[in-house]
């Protein structure tokens, strides 16, 4: 019997798109708690958070043939945010409708800032040495473990750690003023 826990997210997504129920079950088990925490932090309701997670994961399965997923964690986080907004729109009292323009503006501002930050981060990552950039991409965007990366690139786990540390140091240095201004 295949141990799906050993597969990287990208492999599980590919198998799921080929109707592999066990791959979906592994994704479900791997991400349920993270998605629940994300939804609960925004909704502060166990039942609503569980509904969000169920909606997101059901949607993932239903769109398994249509979606192109480059980063499963990012895809699930984005889908969760939209599902949270949907839940909130169902429970917002009618009197709160007056406050919607400010809320929409805040979300729009946050989205614009996030987009700018993502673009800036991609530009910084492009400036890294190739192997360092590849290691960081495998680690952060594809969710691979250090051991998986080391095996795939035929380097030591220590080298993987050094590349990730180097990338993170560069990002921290470049964005220190940005994050300092936020807090």
From TrEMBL:
Q: Which Pfam families match?
A: Sigma70_r2, Sigma70_r4_2
Q: Which keywords fit this entry according to its UniProt record?
A: Sigma factor, Transcription, Transcription regulation
Q: Which SMART domains does the record match to this protein?
A: HTH_LUXR
Q: Which residues form a coiled coil?
A: none
Q: Which InterPro entries does this entry report, sorted A to Z?
A: RNA_pol_sigma-70-like, RNA_pol_sigma-70_dom, RNA_pol_sigma70_r2, RNA_pol_sigma70_r4_t2, RNA_pol_sigma_r2, RNA_pol_sigma_r3/r4-like, Tscrpt_reg_LuxR_C, WH-like_DNA-bd_sf
User: What parts of the sequence cross the membrane?
Assistant: none
User: Which segments constitute the HTH luxR-type domain?
Assistant: 125-183
**Family to which the UniProt record says this protein belongs:** Belongs to the sigma-70 factor family. ECF subfamily.
Q: Which PANTHER family does the protein's record reference?
A: RNA POLYMERASE ECF-TYPE SIGMA FACTO (PTHR43133), RNA POLYMERASE SIGMA-70 FACTOR ECF SUBFAMILY (PTHR43133:SF46)
Name of the protein in question: Sigma-70 family RNA polymerase sigma factor
